[in-house]
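Q: Given only this backbone (157 positions), what sequence would you predict?
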């Protein structure tokens, strides 16, 4: 095992952590807050509200840097296609995340708490959740591509 293999494995691990975080949120967090906003939004509000941004703001830059280093180190080798596919897809997902998912999430979860359920807000949350599930499937495919790159030799034969 050489340094290129280790860096590629670290990039794959970091990307797997991104997928794991997204799976966790879709399994445990999103169904709770999207169930009946604004009544279901209490977990995000007040002095003890959860802040998932702390995780995402830390993992994305690390993952991106590791993927870029992996791409640079495998540019002339057979892994390049897998890494490049992952990187381009990741950038597209991040653009969608920062232009739609984050602003919409902030708008929904920033709605003042009320004991009632707003049907329009619930519909927006449902749309957000559905589109985010599509995004999750895409990042799973991107993770698989990056991991499969590890099955290729680190340099051209």
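A: Predicted residues:
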């Amino acid at each position: 095992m050489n340094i290129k293999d280790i860096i590629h494995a670290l990039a794959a691990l970091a990307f797997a952590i991104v997928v794991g975080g997204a799976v966790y949120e879709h399994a445990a967090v999103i169904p709770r807050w999207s169930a009946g906003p604004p009544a279901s939004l209490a977990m995000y509000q007040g002095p003890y509200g959860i802040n998932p941004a702390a995780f995402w703001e830390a993992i994305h830059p690390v993952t991106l840097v590791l993927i870029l280093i992996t791409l640079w180190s495998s540019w002339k080798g057979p892994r390049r296609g897998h890494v490049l596919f992952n990187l381009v897809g990741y950038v597209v997902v991040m653009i969608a995340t920062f232009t739609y998912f984050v602003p919409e999430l902030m708008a929904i979860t920033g709605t003042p708490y009320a004991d009632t359920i707003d049907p329009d807000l619930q519909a927006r949350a449902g749309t957000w959740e559905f589109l985010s599930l599509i995004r999750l499937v895409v990042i799973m495919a991107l993770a698989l591509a990056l991991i499969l790159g590890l099955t290729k030799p680190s340099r051209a034969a």
